[in-house]
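Narrative of accomplishments. A recurring question from our advisory board has been how the design workflow behaves on a single, concrete structure rather than in aggregate. To address it, we present the structure tokens for one chain from the evaluation set, followed by the sequence designed for it. No filtering or post-editing was applied between the two.
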């Protein structure tokens, strides 16, 4: 029997709302020494750490036994050299945690404002994201800022949270503070949340209101179809997407956008397909970069697979393991995109 996951969805929405308020505030005041470069050369800001601390604290309060796979860890913040950053993160996280009841909070589920946390409680909350993942059982994924490079550029980024049970994503919530609420009326403002529960559909509402609207991927037409792809050429191959576009006679140029906002746009009918092919050997996609997006697109009536047509495997640890690339698209076009991707891969192999 399918479960309702009502408490989990409400908590996830409330946590993403609080984290989005925090990241928006951070962007307006971010200064240079509030960003670090991680071992893999990617950036992390006080916003990433503080948002993970807030979401993890709220999860722990509501579901103390659930393990968490979170992108960030607090190792740098525990060093003497990280003290200034840690102090700022603690202040930001506590402001977000104790602020008055945000829309979507529900005290009945214990997800209203909480008490301020100590430094060590907040560092421990960040480090609770160290779960290695598992094939069975419940676990949450947190990507506190997905598309950190987009966040730093003032463009798209997303606060992403999912609940995975026995390797299947059951709840996904994506907050997009910089995304237009209505792409046909950009003047109507920005700030959306997407949310989906397995078997119950997908919805969008505004970051500041409680106005859920169901989202569904419409049938695509040659006039409207184009690819959604990463901004960063290092994250997915733009030239491969060009070849697939040529094979499919796609005339519209791709929409480049950071983060899982791409899954949100696809789910509400923008673009037609999200194609993410690896640029080099070795990088394994992280589960927090795809779990909320996968359930959102599937619940909006689409299909998400890797470049071989296999489902994404969320039960192999912190990465998607052997999955190679991602194709997300409406049901009517996914098969055609998959065939074109296979053709482009075969052409590249023949040339090599
Ligand atoms: N080499 C490589 N290949 C593929 N993906 C990578 C790679 N390196 C990083 N990442 C992950 O990409 C996440 C950013 O998502 P996007 O690629 O959609 O954003 S962007 O348009 O490129 O900025 C980004 O997520 P965040 O770190 O949360 O921003 C990374 O997890
Ligand atoms: Mg990410
Ligand atoms: Mg991130
Ligand atoms: Mg990152």
């Amino acid at each position: 029997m399918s479960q309702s996951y009502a408490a989990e969805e409400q908590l996830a929405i409330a946590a993403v709302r609080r984290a989005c308020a925090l990241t928006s505030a951070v962007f307006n005041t971010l200064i240079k020494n509030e960003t670090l470069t991680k071992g893999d050369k990617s950036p992390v800001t006080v916003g990433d750490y503080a948002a993970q601390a807030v979401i993890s604290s709220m999860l722990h309060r509501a579901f103390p036994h659930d393990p968490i796979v979170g992108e960030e860890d607090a190792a740098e913040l525990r060093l003497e050299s990280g003290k200034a950053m840690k102090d700022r993160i603690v202040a930001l996280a506590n402001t977000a945690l104790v602020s008055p009841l945000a829309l979507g909070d529900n005290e009945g589920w214990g997800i209203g404002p909480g008490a301020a946390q100590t430094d060590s409680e907040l560092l421990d909350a960040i480090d609770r994201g160290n779960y290695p993942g598992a094939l069975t059982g419940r676990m949450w994924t947190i990507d506190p800022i997905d598309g950190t490079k987009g966040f730093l550029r003032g463009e798209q980024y997303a606060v992403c949270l999912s609940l995975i049970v026995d390797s299947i994503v059951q709840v996904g919530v994506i907050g997009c503070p910089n995304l237009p609420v209505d792409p046909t009326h950009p003047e109507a403002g920005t700030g959306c949340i997407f949310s989906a529960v397995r078997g119950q559909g997908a919805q969008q509402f505004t970051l500041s209101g409680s106005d859920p609207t169901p989202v569904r991927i419409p049938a695509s037409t040659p006039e409207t179809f184009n690819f959604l792809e990463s901004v960063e050429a290092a994250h997915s191959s733009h030239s491969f997407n060009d070849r697939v576009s040529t094979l499919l006679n796609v005339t519209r140029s791709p929409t480049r956008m950071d983060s899982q906002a791409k899954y949100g746009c696809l789910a509400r009918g923008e673009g037609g397909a999200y194609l993410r092919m690896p640029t080099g050997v070795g990088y394994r996609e992280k589960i927090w970069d795809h779990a909320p997006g996968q359930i959102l697109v599937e619940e909006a009536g689409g299909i998400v697979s890797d470049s071989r047509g296999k489902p994404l495997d969320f039960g192999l640890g912190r990465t998607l393991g052997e999955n190679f690339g991602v194709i997300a698209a409406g049901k009517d076009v996914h098969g055609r995109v998959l065939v074109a991707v296979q053709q482009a891969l075969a052409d590249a192999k023949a040339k090599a």
